[in-house]
Design goal:
The structure holds two protein chains of two kinds. By secondary structure, chain A is α/β, with parallel strands linked by helices. Chain A is built from seven helices and 13 strands. The termini of chain A are far apart. In chain B, helix 2 links the parallel strand 4 and strand 5. Chain B starts with a strand and ends with a helix. Classes of the chains: A alpha/beta, B alpha/beta. Strand 9 of chain A pairs antiparallel with strand 13 of chain B. Bound molecules: flavin-adenine dinucleotide and adenosine monophosphate. Flavin-adenine dinucleotide sits at the interface of chains B and A.
Chain lengths: 256, 326
Amino acid sequence: MKIIVAIKQVPVRDSQLRIDASGRWIQEEDLSFEINEPDAYALEEALQLKEKHGGEVVALCLGPARATQTIREALAKGADRAIHIEEENTGALDTFGVASLLSSAIQGEKPDLILTGLQSDDLGYGQTGVVMAEILGLPHSTIIMQVEKENESIRVKRELENGWFQHIDIPLPAVLAIQSGISKLRYATLMGIKKAKLKEMKKVTVGELGAPPPATVLIERAYAPQKSKRTQILEGDAKAVAAKLVEKLKFEVRVI
Amino acid sequence: MSGILVVMEQQGGQWHRMSWEALAAGIELGKQSGQPVLAAVPGSEIAALANEAATKAVAKVHAVEHPLLKDYTPDGFTAALEQLIRQHAPTVVLFPHTYQVRDYAPKLATRFGQSLLSDVIHIRADGGTPVFVRQLFQGKLNADFRPSGNGPFFASVQAGAFRADSLEAGSAQVETFTPQLDAAQIRTKPQAPFREAARAVDLTAAEIIVSVGRGIKDKENIHIVEALAKALNGELAASRPICDNGWLPMERQVGSSGQTVSPKVYMAIGISGAIQHLVGMKGSKIIVAINKDANAPIFEVADYGIVGDLFEIVPALVEEVKKAKG
Ligand SMILES: Cc1cc2nc3c(=O)[nH]c(=O)nc-3n(C[C@H](O)[C@H](O)[C@H](O)COP(=O)(O)OP(=O)(O)OC[C@H]3O[C@@H](n4cnc5c(N)ncnc54)[C@H](O)[C@@H]3O)c2cc1C
Ligand SMILES: Nc1ncnc2c1ncn2[C@@H]1O[C@H](COP(=O)(O)O)[C@@H](O)[C@H]1O
């Protein structure tokens, strides 16, 4: 099975975010970056499918030069090679643009499966995989919690709302958007890290791929949300705030 | 091109409640922009639902009827709605941001060379053009988007962002739209929905829920929060990553893919407050948040907040609760 996994590099969770001078994005200088969490699960699923059925796993990433580190980590975990669309100004692209570039970069690859994460932690559009499927003319499914190969098709377990699930049969090739928690993530081994240095990382530019369709929805302004609810913040040291809260629970909420 | 088309969701003749919120968003946008609001209900044998939608302040309801729309498939729904949209050429198409919409609306937008703007929380009129607000970084930031290009513009609205309880009444005409669909077009085969094994804990019955998130860092630390749940005689619950990691069973997960709860007191400990968690507990009477990040979105729904390290605060709370109970 040849599997392409789209991975995106995003600021680490719990980063303190500040708006940059353009007012449209965050200051990135002091931040650390990591693989988008659902993409780590998509990569894990790809590696497990390869272990079961043989084949190849190709990591695909659009991002600035700093994304190289995240791509190396994917190679260290077991991806066979990578394609990096190196682009510093990703803010000028909307989802259709990103998905178009990701799709052009894999022209001629003929994968059996394309896996993406369900949603990016920074933009959170939750749709790049679906758009790629449409551009490439492939069937797709999203919020995937399990993938089983059956000859020329796959059976996936799709998450529905409120604790419901559904199985769906999909002919290959197909695109799947993988939900976090589909399986346990592996760590890169020392050997994996060594081997990664020798693996192919193909760099392409947007210029080489050809301009994507013009963006129609871009961020005009980013800002901290206005607090609308008046939360009563309890202050003091641990003992003091604990005492204050218990008093509220006892005398106002009356649950103690 | 004119009109705002709201695509409403039903399954097996039952409304998805977020459909009405999307309709409310459409009506609000219609007022702002002086455009008529049209509703569409895709499915099979949905006349009764279409008639119900027609009792709201909309100009028309399109019952998008076809036997192949009985079970949801991305291919079927995309093809059917593409035909409706080409015929009626609305300027804006709105959806509720449901799991189903996530699955096909981006595909539909792509057919028109557009990017869907997903999970919108607010629509503001600004100098004659609407500005759509959505969150970034799981609710830590907001961003304004102003659509450009020739449209139609596609957007989905976040759960709970628009109020469905004050929808104005009306009496619209229902028109049946029969799309051209062929079974061979539909590539995916959905099976019947199912639930995992029966739930042993019923969080919905609990008066007090103490819920733990990724701030707890490690499985070995869960007992710290569990002690508080015990002291308060409440149920222990969790955010999704805790259950994903197997630190607590899935049946204790609160949120859009877990349980929806509304206890007297919900304590969110080390939980950031992503929308998928909030939809499962926003209805709680009193919400207490303990988080070391003063900007965590959870404080936006909390009645009482404690900014600090849960590893200091929770043990202190257990002591105080025990003292208060004597
Ligand atoms: C389709 C879909 C469905 C989903 N369904 C669900 C669902 O049903 N339920 C659900 O919960 N999520 C769901 N999610 C995931 C959701 O988007 C969030 O990723 C998740 O809720 C985050 O969990 P968290 O708040 O525990 O973790 P994080 O977002 O990582 O937050 C951890 C918090 O802990 C705080 N913290 C860290 N250390 C400490 C400390 N020492 N003391 C105090 N505070 C500390 C941090 O400041 C942070 O705010 C879903 C996502 C998608 C895309
Ligand atoms: N720049 C990118 N490079 C590689 N993959 C991406 C990129 N942007 C989005 N994706 C993939 O698409 C998924 C959904 O992203 P989004 O639509 O932004 O929520 C992510 O989880 C990634 O797998």
